[in-house]
Design brief:
Elements: E1 2-6, H1 11-23, E2 28-32, E3 35-38, H2 44-56, E4 60-62, H3 65-82, H4 92-99, H5 104-115, H6 119-137, H7 142-148, H8 154-165, H9 169-175
Antiparallel strand pairs: 1-3, 1-4, 2-3
Helix pairs in contact: 3-5, 3-6, 6-8
Length: 186
């Protein structure tokens, strides 16, 4: 049986979910961002136990198709921005339609309705959060970061960064960690 889990954004999340399920006596066959395949089919009271435990640690079970679809969109964006070593050079609508065989207009409308923001704004917030992370690491120049994140220029990255954060990248770099947000709070 597959269960769907909201707020899984990283490999640590996958480890925590797997560990918690094992503590509850379940046998996860596969744990991916946003979904877990269990060996067994949990009874209703078991699902309630899982939901309660997950809520305590910041996760949430998803049981309706629309929410699962939105979580899939978010997971694809997070994977693209935060877990890919390749330079981001995709149109987000094309990328999503390539991975979710549905019309982008439907995905976009549903996303806005459920999340209260657009896919594009969510994508931008993820990119900016990744830029913040790269600035804090202090391993790349702003030009290298702009290239890696698929910005056409440092000026465009700086403009978007300031619009989202209220700070220039150089000012952010000087104050570092205090302005970063966990991915599940974006």
């Amino acid at each position: 049986m597959v269960i769907y889990v909201k707020n899984m954004v990283c490999n640590r999340c996958k480890m925590v979910v797997k560990s918690e399920l094992e503590k509850l006596g379940f046998h996860p066959l596969a744990v991916e961002l946003g979904e877990v395949e269990l060996k067994e089919t949990p009874a209703e009271e078991d699902l309630e136990k899982i939901a309660k435990r997950f809520a305590e640690i910041g996760f949430e079970l998803i049981d309706d198709k629309r929410s699962r679809l939105i979580e899939r969109v978010k997971t694809l964006i997070v994977e693209l921005v935060h877990h890919s070593d390749e330079t981001i050079q995709v149109n987000i609508s094309d990328y999503l339609v390539q991975h979710i065989p549905m019309e982008y207009k439907y995905l976009s409308t549903l996303f806005s309705e459920i999340e209260g923001t657009t896919i594009e704004k969510f994508y931008i917030s993820q990119r900016i959060e990744r830029v913040k992370e790269l600035l804090v690491y202090d391993e790349w120049s702003l030009s290298q970061i702009a290239d890696q994140m698929g910005y056409s220029s440092v000026a465009y990255l700086s403009t978007q960064f300031k619009k989202v954060t209220g700070l220039t990248p150089s000012h952010f770099k000087s104050i570092k960690e205090s302005k970063r947000k966990p991915l599940d709070q974006l």
